[in-house]
Amino acid sequence: MTALSRPRVSTHIGLLVVGMVAIHLAAHGLLLHGGLPVETALLVIATDLTITTAALAWFTLVRTGIARWTTLIPVVAAGLIAARLLLPVDIPGHLDWMVGGMLGAAELLVAGVALGRLGRIRRAWAHHRSTGHDAHSALEGALSTALPRGLAAAVATEGMLLALAVVGPFRRAPATTPHTFPGLWSSQWPGLVGVLAFVGLAEGACLHLVLGDAWPVLNALHLLVVVYGLLWLMGDFHALRLLPVRLDRTHLHVQVGLRWRARVPRALIQEARVVTDVPEGSDVLDLTLPGATHVEVCLSRPVAVSGLLGIRRTSARLVVSVDEPAALVAQLTP
User: Fold this and answer.
1) 322: helix, strand or coil
2) Beta carbons of 255 and 243 less than 8 angstroms apart
3) For residue 331, with 0-12 CB atoms within 10 Å meaning exposed, 13-18 middle and 19 or more buried, which class applies?
4) Quick one: DSSP state of residue 91?
5) pLDDT reported for residue 4
6) Predicted confidence (pLDDT) per residue in 52-95, tens digit
7) How far apart are CA 237 and CA 200, in angstroms?
């Protein structure tokens, strides 16, 4: 795909959004005030929300190299769904079947494209794992072969968190060795997780009773949010427990659950010292947990640090939390 400057990308995406809003407003106005028969209104709306919108997406995104042609598939599917939602409930049955058939065909096409890419994702996963990447990094790298990097990072993080929420309670934390440095238990985070989980359950139960049967859709959505929030907390807790800071012969592997991760070459480490508070400074990257004792690692040059949802930071001063900071400093001091 063509590399465009950030302002040009923003301009094209803005044109797409403005165009799609205009198309949706025009379709809605035609349905309400056009005075057309239902069959004609359906044909015009379906055309505007699918073919016209897809053409706009091609002109602003695909033609300019911002996105691949497969982006048009979900655009057409979303247009079909929007067309169906805009239509009156009492539309003729054969027209409803027509829209449903078009949606089914779009879903089959999306599924076909996804299946076609599964092999590439699996091979990329195996390659990343064979080269020493952890499961999170390997999954992100594999998904990035089929998805934009930011979306791949978000999907990988959410997938790993949900998986750890389910299987984490049954997995034993790595054994403590001179080269493994957990950082969870000396912090206040386990207690905070318990408080947040209790408050979330209490608030969720009370609001569930208040909404009751009067607002069934809102009640169901609220329940999903509460359950997802609790799963996220549990996944984050077990990620912090199962993925400690590690040290090998060549690298310091900074791992703060799934929140932050970095591979720091030991040759770049100039100094390591125990600190009780995170030092001030624009070049300091805070990777700590609340209430713990920290280690500040000073490097000869900045290194890349990966965070949630594809966030990238670079810093030459990293501050991490470990249960035994003096032991880590002793290992890092020449």
Assistant:
1) coil
2) yes
3) middle
4) -
5) 47
6) 777 777 777 777 776 676 667 677 767 766 666 655 544 455 55
7) 16
Is 81:103 a contact under the CB 8 Å cutoff? yes
Pick from 99, 82, 87, 102: nearest CA to 41: 87
Q: Is 239 exposed, middle or buried (0-12, 13-18, 19+ CB in 10 A)?
A: buried
* pLDDT for the residue numbered 103: 57
Phi and psi angles of residue 321, each rounded to the nearest 5 degrees, phi first: -100, 130
Pairing type for strands 251-256 and 260-265 reads: antiparallel
Q: What is the pLDDT of residue 2?
A: 45
- Going from the C-alpha of 173 to that of each of 39, 146, 232, 244, the distances in angstroms are 63, 32, 19, 9
What's the pLDDT at 242?
92
Query: Which tokens is 301 given?
Result: 């040059």
Q: Which residues of the chain have pLDDT under 50?
A: 1-4, 89-91
Q: What does the alpha-carbon distance between residue 109 and residue 116 come to, in Å, rounded to a whole number? A: 11
Position 235 scores a pLDDT of 92
Task: Taking the CA atoms of 217, 221, 226 and 227 in sequence, report the sign of the dihedral they define.
Answer: positive
3-state SS class at 253: strand
The first and second tokens of residue 130, run together, are 């064979």
Would you tell me how many other CB atoms lie within 10 Å of the CB of residue 324?
Answer: 16
How many Å apart are CA 162 and CA 307, to the nearest integer? Answer: 17
Q: How far apart are CA 298 and CA 301, in angstroms?
A: 9
Q: Say which residue the tokens 């979330």 belong to.
A: 200
Contact 106, 80 (CB under 8 A): yes
For residue 57, what pLDDT is reported? 75
Q: Is-contact 302 275, C-beta < 8 A?
A: no
* pLDDT in the model for residue 85: 63
Count Cβ neighbours within 10 Å for each residue of 240-250 and write b for 16 or more, e otherwise.
Answer: bbbbbbbbeee
Helices 149-167, 135-143: axis angle to 10 degrees equals 140
Q: Give every CB contact of residue 8 below 8 A, 6+ residues apart in sequence.
A: 64
